[in-house]
Design a protein that fits this description.
Elements: H1 4-37, H2 43-55, H3 58-69, H4 74-81, H5 91-117, H6 120-127, H7 132-143, H8 145-160, H9 164-170, H10 180-189, H11 193-217, H12 219-223
Helix pairs in contact: 1-5, 1-8, 2-5, 3-5, 3-9, 5-8, 5-9, 6-7, 8-11, 10-11
Length: 224
């Protein structure tokens, strides 16, 4: 059965995934729009940077984020000068690391949705004297809704499944940085296979439900 520490890890994981997904939708939208619309020679380089977490080992990302956000790193010195302390081994640090690690899983579906819209709806809105901002909110966002659905589901699920990055940045502090994946690791290390089975089964069920919802609610994304 699940203990108090298991429930606390589940709650913290859901909180982390929710905050990360909302931030990624906010941050990823302008990035995806720029990548979908720009003709800049920097498009390939920026797109590669966004996609790096797909191919890089999580420990590599975690290591460099740890160095950057540590006491002697540029981000760490900035946060200390602002009176915020350092981010590693805090929930805020987990959020920052999760945003970097899950970014391609949010940006790429939104970018694909923007690219699939084409030029005609934007030109039609322009002929009706719609401003660029009005066109974006009235035309682009409704047409890109399937992409946002895919991005939200994948971003949330990918954050829930994190292990290497959150362990490097957050460590293993109960009720503060110990997420479900780290809790399972602790149970296995302690040879508490019963508790590990419960949490692992929840993760498997969650992953299946997420994919089922994605394939059921967004069949066009599946076909593409």
């Amino acid at each position: 059965m699940l203990g108090d520490s298991d429930i606390a890890a589940i709650v913290l994981t859901l909180k982390l995934a929710s905050v990360t997904t909302l931030l990624l939708l906010f941050i990823g939208t302008p990035i995806a729009w720029w990548l979908a619309r720009t003709r800049s020679p920097w498009k390939g380089a920026i797109g590669a940077v966004v996609a790096l977490p797909i191919v890089l080992p999580p420990t590599v990302i975690g290591f460099y984020l740890l160095v950057a956000m540590g006491p002697n790193g540029p981000v760490g010195q900035l946060t200390q000068s602002l009176g915020l302390g350092v981010l590693p081994f805090t929930f805020s640090g987990l959020v920052v690391a999760s945003v970097f690690y899950s970014m391609p899983f949010v940006v790429q579906p939104i970018q694909n949705a923007f690219e699939a819209i084409g030029e005609w709806p934007l030109e039609a809105a322009a002929t009706l004297r719609a401003s660029p901002l009005d066109t974006f909110f009235s035309v682009v966002l409704p047409l890109a809704r399937p992409g946002y659905l895919t991005a939200s589901v994948l971003g949330f699920a990918h954050t829930v499944g994190e292990f290497g990055v959150v362990l490097m940045i957050g460590g293993n502090i109960p009720d503060k940085t110990r997420v479900v994946s780290v809790q399972i690791y602790d149970h296995v290390e302690a040879m508490e296979y019963g508790q590990a089975h419960w949490l692992a089964a929840i993760m498997v069920a969650f992953s299946f439900v997420v994919l089922l919802l994605l394939y059921t609610l967004n069949p066009t994304g599946r076909r593409r």
